[in-house]
Task: structure prediction
Amino acid sequence: MENPKDKLAEWLGEVFDQYGIDSLYAVTVFTILIAISYRKDIQNWKELEGWRKGIIMSTFFAAIVFSIFSLLRLTGVIDL
Result:
């Protein structure tokens, strides 16, 4: 039985290829948008549970890492 997540990943890859969108850049944009969506949670940082703080921090870490990879790829320093 095929995993639905694998089917979704294949479908997204096909859509990105169809429209000429690089997957790394798309993931970078989505991650940044998700990080921005935590704006209100960050304003109430002291009232948040520890697990929610961890999710927010890991999202920002991922956004930073993907942004660095995208910038390095745009400048031609790395070739992924």
